[in-house]
Amino acid sequence: MEQRVNIEQTQPDAWKALYGLSGIVHRSSLTTIQKHLIMVRASQINSCAFCINMHRKDALKSGETQQRLFLLSAWRETDLFTEEEKAMLALTEEVTVISKKGVTDATYKQAEKFFSAETIGEIIMLVIVINAWNRIAVSTHKPIEN
Question: Which sign, positive or negative, has the C-alpha torsion 108, 112, 114, 119?
Fold first, then answer.
């Protein structure tokens, strides 16, 4: 697949702004593993090979297991994820596919059982940022790194 426009070069101010927002979001109270689960799951939904590859590698370096990463797309079908993680993943999915049904009251209420309003905001912002990066990588055919 041939790489298309390089957004970093053609839109440097926008790229820097998104990169800056990423830095802010990554300083959240979420654990490193929670962040990686969110980023990998959203990237799976968006079929972003570049981001799946990058965040999977980072997750493994941070102590996530291969088994959980392999089964992340089927998280509802396994007991490998905690109820807190499941609430976070449900919120991740609904924000990522917002046009389907929005974020349902049931999903939001489940998230409130485990997370403060501030942490829910952090989850939503991380999902927004990874979705932006996914859209850049997919639309420009950004090649994966080995």
Answer: positive
